[in-house]
Design goal:
Elements (H helix, E strand, L loop, with lengths): L3 E6 L4 E7 L6 H7 L6 E7 L4 H10 L4 E7 L8 H13 L7 E6 L1 H13 L5 E6 L2 H5 L9 E3 L2 E5 L7 E5 L8 H18 L1 H15 L5 H19 L14 H10 L8 H18 L5 H13 L15 H9 L9 E8 L2 E8 L1 H11 L3
Parallel strand pairs: 2-9, 3-4, 3-5, 5-6, 6-9
Antiparallel strand pairs: 1-2, 7-8, 10-11
Length: 368
Amino acid sequence: MKTVKLKIKTKSQKYFILIGSNLISKFSKILTQNSIKFDQCLLLIDSKIPKRMTKKIFKSLKGKRISSIFLKSNEKNKNQKTINFILNTLLNKNFTRNDCLISIGGGITGDIGGFASSLFKRGIKFINIPTTLLSQVDSSIGGKTGINTSFGKNLIGTFYQPSLVISDIDFLKTLPKRELICGYGEILKHALIANKKLFMYLNKNFKKIIDLKSPFIDKSIYESCKVKKLVIEKDEKEKNLRKTLNFGHTFAHAYEASLGYSKKLNHGEAVLLGMNSALNFSNKNKSINKIEYQIIKKCLEDSNLPWDINKYFSKKDINKILSFMIKDKKNDSNKISLVLLKKIGYPIINQKFSRKRLKLFLKNELMN
């Protein structure tokens, strides 16, 4: 496929997202083309990435001073201990603000790498090479970084834009179908909140996208990134419009935390569950157009996406779920803030509901 270049322009940083195939083999050339220079770099690499892929990156950077950390990327390691290890490595190697941290992995690796980059000497160059579909269409764009605590997900973090994002589609060919489904969930979210035309395209071409057929996967990634680009350029620090990107996430983060970030439910699957909950709550709240609600529900059911919370939770879990929803970083009162949907392309933000109302809703959702 032809490499596509998408320019992101926020108040704090301008950078490009490159989308294409075999980009990591040309990594050194891409750095030169984008005027990115550094004396030395630290590669933060997800240990699950196949060696043949990481070898291409090392080969392309031949001649440069390289240090590397292979990270076991999971939600439990997304913590301050990991950040401290990275910062100590940068200090021991005598990195300066002219040097660079390069993250190679999914959203967890990118979040950790971005957060460490923002802290080290108040900001070091950061390049993100997202290797999952989920990270290519979501976490690699917009500058959100963060780590988890016992109180919840991503409660400590910064807004720190990268210098460059390289989305090499060849990485996707190494992923299991479960990971691709997770990424598809975020693409679907972007369509639901901003682009009905994209929603119809996804609905029609779901299997071709999941099977990584070109040009269907390429177009889906590009259009999804474009939705997020337009949002963050208008609202980098999530004061208003960017809140729409949290559609389904208040539920999703609580579902993940309630299961202790276990392998039973990963982030992308939690987002799909969360979106379904937000859709159902929109329907109960009489916020959403009935016809479009039925269209979206049929899309979820026909594509066999994970959407039923009864497979993961029972009524005994409700109080735990609610306790994490209350602690969500988007809340600014004793009520729970949700993003709802009016119809496809028209989200509703700043909707606040009592714990009592959410508890009744979850009781109705959970059958057992």
